[in-house]
């Protein structure tokens, strides 16, 4: 791993973030644009992004690793739904195998990014921490900026204010900032929330806790999935590793797209299927109706997957339960609900959702003026109107993040090569005609609705519409007519402008 101080003064491309997206982007860049100089700037002291930040018990993927993993790096572990440490090892192996780790500059935060039309370059203001923890402000320039930091706020979680929380005699914990020393063995635990974090925590903590209660305001769609893909195991026994990976990946992509389309087109049938499967596991239709049958349709919000039905098994063993109610106030012994019931607890975990942050908190400026991101449209799910030589990496909401992330990185490489072939110094997408705006993330989830107004918009038609279909995107993305929607500035024009300034 390279020291942050070794960042050169100028690079062809800067990638922000050394998580799944950033490492994948680096691989695509050095294989499809091998002449480009680049660096990955990472705020933290290690790679991994989300998978290094979140350390709560049971942390795992909610997508199968054959699609969440990289197409160029076969997933070889036994379990298709993997835990956090396994994913981190996979990412570290990938970075080392392809020499990507030599390009990562840790403890380096991008605090400002200013595009100059006169020079056709980005000037990045950085905060770098040395080995003694001292922060030093530096700058570098680059031709293209690629934000691969996702859309979560790593520094701040969504933290609603609960009445009377100061009266609680126990400990309150946020999953995003899980204390290493927390001892919950033999303790009574209440987990507030019903999303992916909550349904992960409950069975993991139930192994040691006296009892775990998931307290939810309303039900969430939860589906049991195999933790190990038996079909994938058979395919891996029969085929060479690389071919097996491609076959399994294709199989899972087709299944996931098919199930999503089924849920969207036949919601009532999907509701019956999911409630039926859960009833078959729990053997209690009343519990399923009260706690596991949401008012919204499947995939109006992201579906929570529980590998090997571990969440439901913890309930059947009597180690966990679910309460659907609203909090009235915290009391010394726990939480009093609006129904009057008191949930006694030694530890309360507030799995109340994440906070979104556009592009790692970078607020791009163009010629000194801050760009209002909410006024911009996203082109091909990657580049933005109003901001030249800038791309963002945003994954799918209904499938593995990496599927779209890899497409975006391949598109960025295609754009870079297109610029070189045509001697372009800068490109920026611009729509022809008026676009009807829509939210960038079309999910009803609370964490999305709280912050989505701060993000760019998508349009009502290609290439401005952010589709949730990898099969269509995998064909259309790489065949887009770049000349039709990208407005270019030739290098000769920039050189002429510079000569005039001098």
Strand content: 15-25%
Calculate Rg over CA atoms.
24 Å
Instruction: Write the CATH homologous superfamily of the largest domain.
Output: FAD/NAD(P)-binding domain
Count of helical regions: 15
Report the top-level CATH class of the largest domain: Alpha Beta
Largest sheet: 9 strands, mixed
Q: What's the CATH topology label of the largest domain?
A: FAD/NAD(P)-binding domain
Oligomer: single chain
Number of strands: 25
Structural class: alpha/beta
Q: From the 3D coordinates, which CATH architecture of the largest domain would you assign? A: 3-Layer(bba) Sandwich
The overall pLDDT, averaged over residues, is 90
Give the CA-CA distance, first to last residue. Answer: 40 Å
**Number of domains in the coordinates?**
2
Q: What share of the residues lie within helices?
A: 25-40%
Describe the secondary structure blueprint for this structure.
Elements (H helix, E strand, L loop, with lengths): L9 E7 L3 H13 L5 E4 L8 H4 L11 H4 L15 H14 L6 E2 L2 E9 L4 E9 L5 E13 L23 E3 L14 E5 L3 H11 L4 E6 L5 E4 L4 H9 L2 H25 L1 H16 L2 H7 L12 E4 L2 H7 L3 E5 L2 E5 L2 E4 L4 E3 L2 E4 L14 E2 L2 E2 L7 E2 L3 E2 L5 E3 L8 H21 L2 E6 L8 E2 L6 H6 L5 E2 L11 H7 L5 H4 E5 H11 L1
Parallel strand pairs: 1-2, 1-6, 2-3, 4-17, 6-21, 7-16, 8-9, 8-16, 9-12, 10-11
Antiparallel strand pairs: 4-5, 5-6, 13-14, 14-15, 17-18, 19-20, 22-25, 23-24
Helix pairs in contact: 1-11, 5-10, 6-7, 7-8, 8-9
């Amino acid at each position: 791993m390279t020291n942050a101080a070794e960042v050169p003064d100028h690079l062809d491309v800067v990638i922000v973030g050394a998580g799944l997206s950033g490492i994948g982007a680096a691989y695509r860049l050095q294989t499809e644009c091998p002449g480009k100089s680049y660096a990955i700037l990472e705020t933290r002291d290690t790679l991994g992004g989300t998978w290094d930040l979140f350390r709560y018990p049971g942390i795992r993927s909610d997508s199968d690793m054959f699609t969440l993993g990289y197409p160029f790096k076969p997933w070889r572990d036994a379990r298709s739904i993997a835990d956090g440490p396994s994913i981190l090892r996979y990412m570290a192996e990938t970075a080392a195998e392809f020499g990507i780790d030599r390009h990562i500059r840790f403890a380096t935060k991008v605090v400002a990014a200013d595009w100059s039309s006169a020079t056709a370059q980005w000037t990045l203001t950085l905060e770098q921490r040395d080995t003694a923890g001292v922060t030093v402000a530096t700058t570098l320039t680059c031709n293209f900026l690629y934000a691969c930091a996702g859309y979560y706020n790593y520094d701040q979680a969504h933290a609603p204010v609960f009445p009377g929380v100061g009266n609680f005699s126990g400990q309150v914990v946020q999953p995003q900032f899980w204390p290493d020393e927390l001892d919950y063995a033999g303790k009574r635990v209440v987990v507030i929330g019903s999303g992916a974090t909550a349904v992960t925590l409950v069975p993991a903590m139930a192994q040691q806790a006296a009892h775990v209660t998931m307290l939810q305001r309303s039900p969430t769609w939860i589906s049991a999935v195999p933790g190990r893909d038996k079909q994938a195991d058979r395919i891996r026994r029969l085929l060479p590793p690389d071919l097996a990976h491609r076959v399994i990946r294709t199989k899972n992509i087709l299944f996931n797209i098919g199930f999503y389309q089924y849920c969207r087109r036949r919601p009532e049938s999907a509701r019956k299927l999911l409630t039926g499967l859960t009833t078959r596991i729990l053997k209690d239709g009343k519990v399923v109706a009260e706690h596991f049958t949401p008012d919204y349709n499947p995939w109006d919000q992201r579906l929570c997957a529980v590998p090997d039905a571990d969440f439901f098994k913890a309930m059947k063993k009597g180690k966990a339960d679910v309460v659907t109610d609203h909090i009235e106030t915290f009391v010394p012994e726990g939480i009093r609900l609006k129904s009057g019931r008191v949930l006694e607890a030694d530890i309360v975990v507030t799995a109340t959702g994440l906070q979104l942050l556009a592009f790692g908190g970078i607020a791009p400026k163009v010629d000194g003026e801050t760009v209002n991101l909410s006024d911009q449209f996203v082109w091909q799910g990657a580049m933005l109107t109003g901001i030249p030589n800038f791309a963002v990496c945003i994954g799918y909401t209904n499938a593995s993040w990496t599927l779209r992330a890899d497409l975006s990185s391949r598109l960025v490489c295609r754009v870079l090569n297109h610029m070189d072939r045509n001697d372009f110094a800068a490109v920026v997408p611009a729509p022809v005609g008026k676009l009807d705006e829509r939210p960038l993330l079309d999910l009803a989830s609370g964490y999305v609705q709280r912050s989505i107004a701060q993000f760019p918009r998508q349009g009502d038609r290609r290439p401005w519409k952010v589709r949730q279909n990898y099969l269509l995107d995998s064909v259309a993305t790489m065949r887009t007519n770049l000349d039709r929607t990208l407005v270019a500035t030739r290098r000769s024009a920039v050189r002429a402008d510079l000569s005039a300034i001098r």
